[in-house]
């Protein structure tokens, strides 16, 4: 959000849907303050940290800083017990 009471909040979006000229963006989690009609919004594409995405979007695999051998979506944090 770039203006209004919800300004400076951000959240990754989960899904985009376009039906009959209406566009909807579903956020992964709710914002603390709901945006009002007319509030400014900035949307940008995220990075999945895959070599193929880097090559397709940027055309620059020399600067790639992700995980080339890990399938996106299969990386899950491992719980550890620090007692």
UniProtKB/TrEMBL annotation:
Bacteriophage phiJL001 Gp84 C-terminal domain location: 5-72
Protein species of origin: Humisphaera borealis
InterPro entries the UniProt entry points to: Phage_phiJL001_Gp84_C (IPR018964)
Chain residue ranges for the region called Disordered: 58-83
Domain of life: Bacteria
Protein name as catalogued: Phage BR0599 family protein
